[in-house]
Amino acid sequence: MFLDKHLKKINRYGNTIYSIGLSKKEENLFEDYDFNYFKHSKFLPILEKLKGSFCIVIICENFELLIVDRVRSRPLFYRSVEQKIEYSDSINQLISGNNDLNMSSIQLFKSSGIFLNSNTFVNGINQIESGNYLVIDKVEKSYNIKQYYAYKKSGSETFSLEELDNIYNNCIKRLIEKADGKKICVPLSAGEDSRLIVKKLHEYKYTNVLCYTFGKKGNKEAVISKKIAEKYNFEWHFIEYDKKMWKALFLSEDFNDFTKFSLNKAGLPHVLDFMAVKEMVNNNIIPKDVLFCPGHSGDFVAGTHIPKNLFDFNKYDFNILINYIIYKHFYLNDIEGIDDLKKQIISSLNVNSKTLSPEQYAELIEYWDWKERQSKFIVNSVRVYEYFGFDWDIPLWDFDIMKLWNMTCYKNKLDRNYYIKYSNKFIKELNNSNRSTLSMFKKKGKVYLSSIGMVRDIYKILEYYTHPMNWYSDGFFKYVKHYFANKKYSINSKVANYSVEILCNSDKEDKL
Questions:
Q1: What is the DSSP letter of 375?
Q2: Which pairing describes strands 291-292 and 84-88: parallel, antiparallel, or unpaired?
Q3: How many Cβ atoms sit within 10 Å of the Cβ of residue 435?
Q4: H/E segment holding residue 294
Q5: Are 183 and 291 in contact (CB under 8 A)?
Q6: What is residue 431's predicted lDDT score, i.e. its pLDDT?
Q7: CA–CA dist 457, 88 (Å, integer)
Q8: What contacts 30, CB < 8 A, 6 or more positions away?
Q9: 409-429: buried (b, 16+ CB within 10 Å) or exposed (e) per residue?
Q10: Pick from 1-10, 189-198, 420-429: least confident
């Protein structure tokens, strides 16, 4: 067992419990449960009461339990060595000279930023996936993975906007309880999710809030972010990005160390707000006990990733689903091992039917997205805060929010229709101009024009100068070369390539 020193230790009934992320109320649930008489069916009601981000390790006389939350926000890893299970919250702690790189997983990671299923970059070392826990039987010297949660549709009800508002209110109350007076630091953009958080913090009169945004000077996100922060009288900071900063970052030891730190949690390094946090640390803008609070992934649970033309067809072939997942999520670099990729996706979905209804098709799209992209790519961005030694919370992944959105029909979730109705009624400050008729017309026109080959190429090439993050730092001609080699070239493509280089070089040194 190799666990981080930040995990809290509790002794109860002769058992030892290590945890992080639990509230005091949630900790008491484990203190009152005698795990010497553990049964899966009796354990589920306890897990149902855990709302947020956590990992838990329970050590008993005859068995051990390793539990991750519903989005794997605090990962745990394990390996089997001579009929013994070793585990840690860092892959590096489990690597030995006998472990080889899992090149198949690394190649798929290069195209997606994700280590699929329970795989990591090392053969023989696995991760516990979202909504799962590992049971280690010390008597039988065996282990078993059990799933206690899956992000799947649970009904077709239409809940009221008031019910939805009450759920959001409760999750913000839990955030405030966790913060306990500490400064809450919100990366505030022009999107609904982060704006929802600051609006609710203002409603509950929590004033110790710092908002920040970053990117090219004068970018739209920054302009709107500043207006919202000023409206609520919250502290606001803007960190300007330029090409020199990006170039210096990619050449720095800091970035090299952060890449290794993120990979040790089996995730792609998230660099977009790395420089912003680093600048705020260097300039003493944020205290050491600040609680970071990003808006992940309010848009996803509300239906953003469901195809807008879902009900244009009465049925879908299963192969169309596989190809859709590949198209949407495996674009950072060219795919190597397409047959292996398809097998892994099929294994992940665990579906027997070859024909799907629109509802089944949408459910599987969201399920795979939750299990792989959201849990291992989007949520993994919190590693930035951990790298600098800060705590964090992701309130819009609250279990009650997930449950409620999974109760409604897909027609309510298409294009976030119900979420937009909610914001129109309860949070008028969220009524972005980008939902107006004129702006929607402009947006559709832009999408249409960018779909035309030559126009698309010109638009993407001009991004060298216009991108709001200003990140293309290798020079114009090199950027054009990269773009025509990979039409979906992005900052994450570059980071994925750099990460794979680090992994392959580290193989000679055994550890990252």
A1: I
A2: unpaired
A3: 15
A4: none
A5: yes
A6: 55
A7: 46
A8: 10, 12, 17, 19, 22, 46, 56, 58
A9: ebbbbbebebbbebbeebbee
A10: 1-10
| Helical pair 161-179 and 417-426, crossing angle rounded to 10 deg | 70
Structure tokens at 82: 């001579």
- 434-493 pLDDT per residue, tens: 444 445 444 555 554 555 667 778 878 888 888 888 888 888 888 888 777 776 778 899
Query: Strand order in 132-137's β-sheet?
Result: 8-12, 15-20, 55-59, 63-68, 132-137, 142-147
What predicted TM-score, i.e. pTM, was given to this entire model? 0.92
% helix, strand, coil for the chain, step of 5: 50, 15, 35
Question: Is the Cα torsion angle 25, 297, 216, 487 positive or negative in sign?
Answer: positive
At position 412, the amino acid (one-letter code) is N
Name all domains of the chain by residue range, CATH numbers in brackets: 8-76+128-147 (3.60.20.10), 161-300+379-432 (3.40.50.620)
CA distance 87 to 83: 13
Nearest alpha-carbon partner for 424 in 37, 104, 116, 164: 164
Q: How many CA atoms lie within 13 A of 27 on its CB side?
A: 15
pLDDT score of 210: 98
Q: Which two tokens stand for residue 248?
A: 């210096």
Q: Measure Cα distances from 422 to 156, 299, 419, 478 in Å.
A: 18, 13, 5, 45
Q: Quote the tokens at residue 279.
A: 């600048």
Q: What is the per-residue DSSP string for 403-456?
A: HHHTTB-HHHHGGGHHHHHHHHHH-GGG--GGGSHHHHHHHHHHHHHHTSHHHH
| CA distance linking residue 488 with residue 396, whole number of Å | 29
CB atoms within 10 A of CB 113: 27
Task: Give yes or no for a contact between 393 and 52, defined as CB atoms under 8 angstroms apart.
Answer: yes
Cα–Cα distance list, 283 to 274, 277, 278, 383 (Å): 14, 10, 9, 21
Comparing CA positions, the residue from 205, 196, 262, 131 lying closest to residue 394 is 196
Crossing angle for the helix pair 253-263 and 274-282, to the nearest 10 degrees: 120
Tell me if residue 494 falls in helix, strand or coil: helix
Element (DSSP H or E) covering residue 394: none
